[in-house]
Design goal:
Shape: elongated
CATH topology: Rossmann fold
Pfam families: ArsA_ATPase
Protein name: ArsA family ATPase
Oligomer: single chain
Organism: Nocardioides panacihumi
InterPro entries: ArsA/GET3_ATPase-like, ATPase_ArsA/GET3, P-loop_NTPase
Number of domains: 1
Largest sheet: 8 strands, mixed
Radius of gyration: 26 Å
CATH architecture: 3-Layer(aba) Sandwich
Strand order of the largest sheet: 5-6-4-7-3-8-9-10
Number of helices: 15
Length: about 375
């Protein structure tokens, strides 16, 4: 981590700000997983793709996994459609780059097929309750993100995995996946569903019969039967789920994993970034740094906002409020925006002084191809 003097409106400050060494992170062979997290609309998907592309073109074998349902990643990489299978990105020199998008149901199906016998797997996959659970149950996406990440790491086909997480605070929900799964499996309702399959006949007491009768009235007889069949069939498979989720959680905490928090130079986005930093620190996750995207660049010249406005007043006093005055106002607006953004970043740095930061200037247009991703990667690295 290197440090550089502050620039801009706080240039007189004697302190230094830690700077995120992006290329050092990408080039380090011990960096095996990079997780990009942050609120929505801050350029997280573009950042993930740019980091993956830059790492690949610096000689690494990379896969980028997006959990964001947006299709921007596929479009910018020239791939017609992303799915649960890694697809090679063409025109990448140096190393190699694959891209994929999480399909939570297909990932769930793959785990069932791998863990259960053919007969039991067929029983599970055709169960109506399983179909609903694997497609839309709360928390399934986060758990399957853990599963897919662990799967990619175990297979060992890549020396760097870049993960693009969902927007907002839900991006860290996958950190809670093992505990949520354990709570679900160990809950009273699941134990009740398993009682007929696990326990001796004496468990089928009058009390159990009353509960079953009540559930039948609420859920319907077929739904209850489907649930009992599903839970009984999946009981042994869930043990493997939970164990691998806990292993992946430990992998995220291990040396070789790096979390990058992505934000925009706006109050709400930097507040969210502060939440991510604090949550990651609390969970002892290895935080590599903060990336501030789309920062306003300083206007050319050395004229300050106050100086530009003073010049406007002089022109107005001379009864000259023409194009020159308009350009000076634009200059002043941009200079003040740069100052506000700098103040926001300094406020964040004051609260989190050890978090290295990379500031990426705003581009003139949207990123829609590999050249655009290369430019973002170059700016991320401070080139």
């Amino acid at each position: 981590m290197r440090s550089v003097p502050r620039v801009g409106p706080l240039a007189a400050s004697p302190t230094t700000a830690p700077v995120l060494d992006v290329d050092g992170l990408l080039d380090d062979p011990e960096t095996r997983i990079i997780v990009c997290c942050g609120s929505g609309g801050v350029g997280k998907t573009t950042t993930s793709a740019s980091l993956a592309l830059r790492a690949a073109e610096r000689g690494r074998k990379v896969v980028v996994l997006t959990i964001d349902p947006a299709r921007r990643l596929a479009q910018s990489m020239g791939i017609d459609q992303l799915d649960n299978t890694p697809r090679p990105v063409q025109d990448v020199s140096g190393g190699s780059l694959d891209a994929m998008m999480l399909d939570m149901k297909r990932t769930f199906d793959e785990v069932v097929l791998a863990q259960a016998s053919p007969e039991k797997a067929k029983q599970i996959l055709e169960n109506p309750f399983y179909i609903a659970l694997s497609s839309s149950f709360a928390g399934t996406q986060e758990y399957m993100a853990m599963e897919k990440l662990g799967q990619l790491h175990r297979e060992g086909g890549y020396d760097l995995i870049v993960v693009d997480t969902p927007p907002s605070r839900s991006a860290l929900d996958f950190l809670d996946a093992p505990d949520r799964l354990s709570s679900f499996l160990d809950g009273r309702f699941i134990r009740l569903m398993l009682a007929p399959a696990r326990g001796p006949a004496k468990l089928m007491t009058a009390g159990f019969g009353i509960i079953t009768s009540a559930l039948t009235k609420i859920l319907g007889g077929q739904v209850l039967t489907d649930m009992q069949a599903f839970v009984a069939a999946l009981d042994t498979v869930f043990g493997g789920f939970r164990q691998r989720a806990q292993q992946t959680y430990a992998l995220l905490q291990a040396h070789g994993t790096a979390f990058l928090v992505v934000a925009a130079p706006e109050p709400d986005a930097l507040r969210e970034a502060a939440y991510f930093v604090e949550r990651l620190s609390g969970d002892r996750m290895p935080l590599a740094g903060l990336i501030v995207n789309r920062a306003t660049t300083e206007p050319p010249g050395e004229l300050s906002a106050a100086g530009a406005l003073a010049a406007v007043e002089r022109l107005r006093a001379a009864d000259d409020d023409g194009p020159t005055a308009g350009l000076l106002r634009l200059h002043a607006d941009r200079a003040r925006l740069v100052e506000r953004e700098q103040q926001l970043r300094d406020r964040f740095s004051a609260a989190h002084p050890r978090v290295p930061t990379a500031v990426v200037p705003a581009l003139a247009g949207d990123v829609h191809d590999l050249d655009g991703l290369r430019e973002v990667g170059r700016l991320l690295a401070g080139a």
